């Protein structure tokens, strides 16, 4: 008896060791996806990785309908979700959730290997056309669109009035150039504002610069080959860069972009009077500027407007329950869900039915002085036209964009002149040694 | 062993149970110690060896192994200005975080070594910063050093740094000071407790003798305490060197990923080598695992050199006043150096020193 217990212990520990090794070397064979979502393969729970708040009823009603618990793996911001996803993809899906939220800015990078993602069935007439196109790889849909980011400008009426440059939405629109508004006229308005005021015109010119980049048809990369342009020869970027960098030299910006430790405090301390505000940022501003009156959203935007960001739900092919995950992604991007999200976080939907819904157009926003943000952003989206679809984004778009916006930040912080910053950005780009397009 | 000698006498049949028990005796000890070695093999040796392979190849995260490139990756890294900048940053942050940390830890340990009321409470409380998560530490310090935190507005009031954003997120040296202060905050208590443990092992007679000889508190600290805890001090300095050079969390989380996007500042003001490695291989969009692995090896070598340098320096500093006077002591101190757990020899030697120093 005693011996057999011991033998058992030996076998058990050997088995444990073997198990430990096996689980370390594991990896999974990479699911093929597809299949039908039936009662037979129904999982007990599904996981979804995202970084915004979920409307509480949303997940509950999915659970009620299918009896599947949905767990949200919540990230503090898109960047950390991106890191986890990126590393999971390169290790055969280790640590990934069943459904992942992916932001437009790093969408192409994640889709570099389309086989990593489950092909999603077409759902006719749900989204605006260009959103579907953005969410597809070679004509195959791999992501269901959530929100879009029509570009607007939030400005503080009281601060503008105190500086004597504008009083209401209309006069602010005129200040930044009216119908003919361009980035140049927008920045000149800033020079005018800071001359008459002792705070800053804008939170961060690097953010504004990022918005301007989003309006370009092909900012950094050649659409045919996908290869980056030589940055030193990229005249349109250089011109834009110098325009923003010179404005930064003139001190119109506080140099504190969203995500910075000081951003929220800057609102509370009334440090700046305007912020380039895509639809999804309006709710974030309302949160950070809580208790500071006078914030409004202008329906005028330089160069006719455009789109910044907006996300997709996609299903990694390595997941165990891809069929049900597809169902969940479908559910999370339904017009109903989009409306709920609009009320929860202020994200502007990409779903046609939701956009048209009076529930969105007629909701008055308390923080923004009763403005109908759904209406304003709807108009901005419609006004942007084709530009709303954004330009071409290759695999290195996000990286190069970070590089050049960092250059603007150097000028904002006073550690470099416009020319020095551009030179340093170019040399950093050269050090990366890309095969550049001719 | 008795079993083996019994074997020839019972050649015909060995029971299953008996055979098992023989295996048990032979194999079990190895199985009992195996978890450590298995884990070490999987998480220690294998990555180490694999890293050599990665460093010698063109290696991308998604595409995996590419061509064999020999030492090209190493050459590439050594030619990157950013690598050298990050090395400067690392050493600067290490010095700004390490030196005050050691001095403070010694002082705190010395205070805790006294007869305090509620001793355990004080001892536990110095460890609290260490228990706080690095993320929380970074957030707290981000607030402290931020434009609207408790520090910068006061500096503004003094007429300093009236820029639009916090100088601690802009200026290279000041950002090192800020990150260094996080390191001090986090690790001082931990080191103080280790030093305290060593101080407690110093025989009280030495202090009594020193007191009788008329040595004050400060004199006792430098002539009795420090020499007595030398092995521990060396240990603390070595681990601090290695840990301090590998700094990553604080630098990555400083500024909440704002201006620098977690990469170490807009102009890489506080990119440390580990952060540079991470950005090369994983964090940024560069996807250069081969080069990142090369950074790892180059940096491991640098840490080794700095640690050895530090080790020899530490040994020399605390034995300077003893060595020249009597040659025989040099040989003795060499034999005890780096050997924790020989307090009697050290104590004896220290007693000599203390008496002599006090009587001189």
Assembly category: heterodimer
State the end-to-end distance of chain B. 63 Å
Helical/strand content category of chain A: alpha/beta
- Mean pLDDT of chain A comes to 87
Radius of gyration of chain B: 27 Å
Q: Which blocks of ≥5 consecutive residues of chain B have pLDDT under 50?
A: 320-360
Order of helices and strands of chain B: HHEEHHHHHHHHHHHHHHH
Strand order of the largest sheet of chain A: 2-1-3-12-6
SS field, number of helical segments of chain B: 17
Low-pLDDT segments of chain A: 1-12, 14-33
- Major sheet of chain B, described briefly? 2 strands, antiparallel
Rg of chain A, nearest Å: 24 Å
Net shape of chain A: globular
How confident is the prediction overall: mean pLDDT of chain B? 81
The tally of strands of chain A reads: 13
Amino- and carboxy-terminal Cα gap of chain A:
80 Å
Question: Could you give a short description of this structure?
Answer:
Chain A contains 19 helices and 13 strands. Chain A has 438 residues and is an alpha/beta fold.
Features:
heterodimer; A: 438 residues; alpha/beta; 5-stranded mixed β-sheet; 4-stranded mixed β-sheet; 19 helices; 13 strands; 46% helix; disordered N terminus; B: 360 residues; mainly alpha; two-stranded antiparallel ribbon; 17 helices; 2 strands; 2% strand; disordered C terminus
Protein topology:
The complex is a heterodimer of chains A (438) and B (360).
Chain A: H1 2-25, E1 45-50, H2 56-66, E2 69-74, H3 78-89, E3 99-103, H4 104-110, H5 129-134, E4 136-137, E5 140-141, E6 144-145, E7 147-148, E8 151-156, H6 157-163, H7 169-175, H8 183-195, E9 200-202, H9 205-214, H10 235-249, H11 263-268, E10 272-278, H12 279-288, E11 295-298, E12 311-314, H13 322-332, H14 335-345, E13 348-349, H15 352-356, H16 358-361, H17 373-384, H18 397-412, H19 418-431
Parallel strand pairs in A: 1-2, 1-3, 9-10
Antiparallel strand pairs in A: 3-12, 4-5, 6-12, 7-13, 8-10, 8-11
Chain B: H1 2-6, H2 16-55, E1 57-60, E2 64-68, H3 72-78, H4 81-112, H5 119-125, H6 128-131, H7 134-145, H8 152-157, H9 172-200, H10 204-212, H11 217-228, H12 230-245, H13 249-253, H14 273-283, H15 289-319, H16 327-336, H17 343-359
Antiparallel strand pairs in B: 1-2
């Amino acid at each position: 008896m005693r011996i057999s217990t011991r033998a058992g212990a030996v076998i058990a520990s050997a088995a444990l060791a073997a198990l430990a090794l096996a689980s370390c070397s594991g990896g999974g064979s990479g699911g093929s996806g597809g299949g039908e979502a039936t009662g037979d393969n129904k999982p007990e729970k599904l996981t979804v990785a995202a970084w915004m708040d979920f409307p509480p009823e949303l997940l509950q009603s999915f659970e009620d309908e299918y009896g599947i618990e949905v767990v949200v793996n919540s990230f503090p911001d898109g960047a950390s979700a991106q890191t986890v996803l990126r590393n999971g993809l390169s290790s055969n899906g280790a640590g990934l959730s069943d459904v992942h939220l992916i932001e437009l800015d790093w969408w192409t990078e994640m889709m570099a290997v389309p086989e990593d993602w489950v092909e999603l069935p077409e759902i006719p007439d749900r989204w605006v056309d260009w959103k579907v196109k953005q969410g597809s790889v070679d004509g195959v849909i791999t992501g269901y669109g959530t929100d879009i980011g029509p570009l607007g400008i939030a400005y503080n009426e009281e601060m503008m009035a105190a500086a004597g440059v504008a009083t209401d939405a209309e006069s602010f629109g005129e200040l930044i150039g009216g119908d003919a508004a361009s980035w140049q006229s927008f920045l000149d308005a800033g020079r005018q504002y800071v001359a008459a005021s002792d705070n800053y015109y804008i939170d961060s010119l690097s953010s504004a610069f990022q918005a301007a980049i989003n309006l370009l048809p092909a900012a950094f990369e050649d659409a045919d080959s996908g290869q980056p342009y030589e940055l030193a020869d990229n005249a349109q970027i250089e011109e834009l860069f110098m325009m923003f960098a010179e404005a930064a030299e003139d001190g119109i910006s506080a140099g504190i972009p969203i995500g910075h430790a000081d951003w929220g405090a800057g609102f509370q301390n009334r440090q700046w009077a305007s912020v380039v505000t895509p639809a999804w940022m309006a709710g974030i501003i309302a949160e950070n500027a809580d208790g500071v009156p006078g914030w409004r959203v202008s329906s005028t935007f330089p160069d006719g407007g455009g789109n910044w960001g907006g996300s997709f739900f996609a299903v990694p092919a390595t997941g165990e329950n891809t069929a049900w995950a597809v169902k969940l992604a479908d559910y999370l991007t339904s017009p109903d869900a989009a409306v709920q999200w609009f009320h929860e976080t202020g994200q502007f939907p990409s779903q046609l039915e939701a956009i048209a819904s009076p529930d969105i157009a007629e909701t008055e926003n308390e923080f923004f002085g009763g403005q109908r943000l759904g209406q304003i952003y709807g108009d901005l989206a419609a006004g942007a036209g084709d530009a709303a679809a954004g330009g071409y984004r290759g695999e290195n778009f996000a990286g190069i964009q970070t590089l050049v916006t960092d250059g603007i930040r150097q000028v904002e912080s006073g550690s470099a002149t416009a020319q020095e910053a551009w030179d340093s950005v170019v040399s950093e780009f050269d050090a990366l040694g890309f095969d550049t397009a001719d | 062993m008795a079993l083996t000698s019994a074997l020839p006498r019972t050649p015909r049949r060995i029971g299953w149970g008996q055979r098992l028990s023989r295996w048990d005796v032979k194999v079990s000890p190895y199985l009992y110690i195996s978890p450590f070695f298995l884990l070490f093999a999987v998480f220690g040796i294998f990555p180490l060896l694999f890293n050599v392979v990665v460093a010698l190849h063109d290696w991308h995260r998604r595409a995996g192994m590419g061509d064999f490139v020999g030492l090209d990756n190493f050459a590439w890294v050594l030619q990157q200005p950013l690598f050298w900048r990050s090395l400067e940053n690392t050493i600067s942050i290490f010095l700004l975080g390490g030196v005050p940390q050691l001095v403070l830890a010694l002082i705190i340990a010395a205070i805790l070594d006294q007869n305090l009321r509620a001793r355990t409470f004080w001892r536990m409380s110095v460890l609290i910063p260490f228990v706080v998560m690095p993320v929380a530490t970074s957030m707290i310090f981000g607030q402290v050093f931020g434009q609207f935190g408790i520090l910068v507005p006061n500096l503004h009031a003094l007429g300093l740094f009236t820029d639009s954003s916090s100088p601690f997120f802009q200026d290279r040296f000041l950002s090192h000071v800020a990150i260094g202060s996080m390191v001090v905050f986090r690790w001082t208590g931990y080191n103080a407790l280790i030093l305290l443990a060593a101080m407690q092992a110093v025989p009280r007679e030495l202090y009594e003798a020193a007191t009788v000889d008329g040595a004050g508190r400060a004199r006792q600290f430098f002539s009795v305490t420090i020499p007595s805890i030398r092995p521990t001090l060396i240990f603390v300095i070595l681990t601090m060197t290695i840990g301090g050079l590998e700094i990553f969390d604080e630098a990555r989380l400083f500024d909440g990923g704002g201006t620098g996007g977690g990469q170490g500042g807009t102009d890489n003001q506080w990119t440390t080598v580990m952060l540079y490695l991470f950005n090369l291989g994983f964090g940024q969009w560069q996807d250069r695992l081969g080069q990142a692995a090369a950074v790892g090896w180059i940096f491991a070598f640098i840490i080794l050199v700095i640690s050895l340098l530090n080790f020899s320096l530490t040994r020399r500093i605390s034995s300077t006043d003893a060595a020249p006077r009597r040659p025989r002591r040099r040989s003795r101190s060499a034999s005890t150096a780096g050997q924790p757990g020989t307090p009697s020899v050290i104590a004896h030697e220290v007693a000599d020193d203390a008496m002599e120093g006090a009587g001189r």
